[in-house]
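If your schedule permits, I should be very grateful for your opinion on a structural question. What I wish to show you is a protein chain and, alongside it, a tokenised description of its three-dimensional fold. Would you kindly read the sequence against the tokens and tell me how you understand this chain to fold? Here, with my thanks, is the record as I have it:

===
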Amino acid sequence: GGKVIGASFIIELEFLNPREKLKGYDIFSLVQYN
């Protein structure tokens, strides 16, 4: 099996606090929306 080390998103909805919920992972997003 593999190990998840990060996540990529086209749009990051900042009001959902994704970085807080995915602590410990590298997060990449093309667009950040408040």
About this structure: The helical segments are 18-21. The mean pLDDT is 96.
